[in-house]
Design brief:
It contains 9 helices and 17 strands. By secondary structure, the chain is α+β, with helices and mostly antiparallel strands. The protein has a single domain, classed as 4-Layer Sandwich (Metallo-beta-lactamase, Chain A), CATH 3.60.15.10. A hairpin with a 2-residue loop joins β11 and β12. It is globular and about 50 Å long.
Length: about 300
């Protein structure tokens, strides 16, 4: 596996998001056998710090955040969509948020254009889960499919959850719009959608791994070419600081807090033990790196 780092885009023009300019995030690229894997920026989110911290002990969390330069009340996690090209297929893992979620996100089509990839070139879209920043980008402002030639693939448990009419009343008021938005978009692509379960090879060289907790059916994907592999973890490891240093702490973004902890600890241990490369949707520097054990905790080391 030969990693490289490059800046795919400069600033995408000025943004009026809370009076701040559009942020720029590095993208990463590796080769895996005959495949090229690139992280394509969809912009970034703007989240209140308490969304992540929740009821965590502030006195213990503050030094961790300060070590990573996180100050103030707003967090700006990057959004890294994984693009896999192998000469026959052009696969996206997740579809970004489109224009309907946050003004600071929705850059994926522009990033792909900078990479020389048109929406019509995408042959498959494989979803980690159904949250807005991963799913809502499948439709444009006119509710037409953005990736018109693509087949869509999602875990059966995740599909069942977001298409269940009871989800909007059980997910909680703060996430009710997530359920409405997911159901509408999944209905629009249903005829092009197929389903998979844990341990299934969803496409040649792409194996699904159940990483439930962040959502009820969240999936990660092991991309393998011979002895080389990389794990696309989605939001199973949701940030590069607290999730690594204190994986036993609850993440406010996980719908099943205890399930998220169990998955996070298992996945970090596996990645560190196997020395497997990983791509995290909300990790720094394009999201590509490795997990290293650091005493009783872990750290994310980006590929350079």
């Amino acid at each position: 596996m030969k990693p490289t780092r490059r800046q795919v885009l400069g600033a995408l023009g000025a943004s009026a998001v809370f009076g701040l300019p559009r942020m720029t995030f590095a993208a990463s690229e590796i080769t895996l056998g005959q495949a090229r894997i690139t992280t394509a920026s969809d912009g970034h989110l703007m989240l209140p710090k308490e969304f992540l911290l929740g009821d965590l002990p502030a006195a213990e969390a503050a030094p961790i955040l300060e070590k990573y330069g996180i100050t103030g009340d707003v967090m700006r996690p990057p959004c890294n969509v994984t693009l896999l090209q192998d000469g026959e297929r052009t696969i996206l893992f997740d579809a970004g948020s489109g224009s309907g979620f946050m003004p600071s996100a929705g850059d994926l089509v522009d990033t792909l254009d900078a990479l020389g990839v048109a929406p019509d070139d995408i042959t498959h879209v494989v979803f980690t889960h159904g949250h807005p920043d991963h799913l809502w980008g499948v439709l444009d402002d006119f509710d037409d499919p953005v990736f018109a030639n693509a087949s869509y693939m999602i875990g059966k448990q995740e599909w069942d959850y977001w298409t269940d009419p009871d989800t909007v009343t059980t997910i909680g008021e703060e996430r009710a719009s997530f359920a409405v938005g997911a159901a509408r978009r999944l209905a629009a692509i249903e005829d092009q959608c197929s389903f998979f379960t844990d341990g299934q090879e969803v496409l040649p060289g792409v194996m699904a791994h159940a990483t439930f907790g962040h959502t009820p059916g969240h999936m990660s994907f092991e991309i393998r070419q011979g002895s080389e592999s990389v794990m696309v973890v989605g939001d199973a490891i949701g940030n590069g600081h607290i999730a690594f240093e204190r994986p036993d702490w609850v993440s406010g973004s996980d719908q099943d807090a205890e399930g998220g902890i169990k998955t996070r600890k298992r996945l970090l241990d596996q990645l560190a033990q196997d020395k497997m490369a990983m791509i995290g949707f909300h990790l720094r520097d394009g999201g590509l790196g490795r997990v290293e054990r650091n005493g009783d905790s872990y750290r994310f080391v980006s590929e350079v």
